[in-house]
Design brief:
The chain is α/β, with parallel strands linked by helices. It has helices at 13-20, 35-43, 89-94, 96-108, 135-152, 172-179, 190-201, 206-215, 231-244, and strands spanning 2-7, 28-30, 58-68, 71-81, 111-116, 158-163, 220-225.
Length: 246
């Protein structure tokens, strides 16, 4: 089943993918020959120079294996890195092939995993808040994604929205114990996890998410918090997609 892995620039997509490939996993495993080799390939280009922020369209393919009580599932992932300029009409006209390939991929995908970063007022006081956008900017960016999903993603059935860098805005140990997946019977259902995370961490865009589901009745949305420092939280959105996509 096809899943697209996308998000704004500098939200931590590469770090999440690398940590997901860590052989010390619970229920989710990435097909990568060697963990260290995988890390090198993602951090460095073919010329051996460190990869900076995405300045051009780039795509990769991954296979993610999810272990479920009903059996193993394999998710075929199209991981798309995009420059911020991709939303500008001038960029789309100038880079027609990249834009059309992007649209083709997302239109065919059953699942979408969207990575967001926290806004300025959300992160802990000891963090340099100037590195993060304001709440209003955060809302504006998300509305851009909402419009895109409504216009271009009518075939999608599951959308997992991940607020990344959870270690900067909550007690990840406490939250992982509350939200963790247990095959033998978790304390929370998927709907209960969604409602808890939505109300606690996504409140500024809760109405926007509701707008999305009203415009696409076939699309089910769930919200997650993720971080590279907690495996339970890291794996949850992938388990969710594996559990519900055919």
């Amino acid at each position: 089943m096809a899943v697209v892995y996308i998000g704004d620039r500098s939200v931590g997509k590469t770090c999440l993918a690398i940590e997901l490939a860590n052989p010390q996993n619970d229920y989710v495993q990435v097909s990568a020959s060697e963990y260290e080799s995988f890390k090198f390939d993602l951090y460095f280009g073919k010329d051996g120079k460190k990869i900076e922020q995405t300045r051009e369209f780039n795509s990769r393919e991954l296979e993610v294996h999810v272990r479920l009580p009903s059996g193993d599932k394999t998710l075929s992932i199209d991981w798309i890195d995009t420059p911020g300029e991709i939303w500008r009409k001038t960029w789309q006209v100038k880079n027609t092939d990249d834009w059309n390939n992007f649209l083709k991929t997302v239109r065919q995908s059953q699942g979408i995993l969207l990575i967001l970063e926290p806004y300025r007022d959300m992160v802990n006081p000891d963090v340099d808040r100037k590195k993060f956008i304001t709440k209003q900017q955060w809302r504006n960016r998300f509305k851009r994604w909402i419009n895109f999903f409504i216009d271009e993603c009518s075939n999608a059935r599951r959308l997992a929205i991940c607020l990344n860098k959870a270690d900067l805005f909550c007690d990840i140990k406490e939250e992982s114990e509350r939200l963790q997946y247990k095959p033998s019977g978790s304390t929370l259902t998927w709907d209960e996890r969604y409602n808890y995370v939505l109300r606690k961490y996504f409140k500024p865009i809760q109405k926007d998410i509701q707008q999305l589901t009203r415009n696409n009745y076939n699309l089910s949305v769930s919200c997650f918090i993720t971080t590279i420092y907690n495996r339970k939280l890291l794996e949850l959105p992938w388990i969710y997609l594996g559990a519900y996509l055919n």
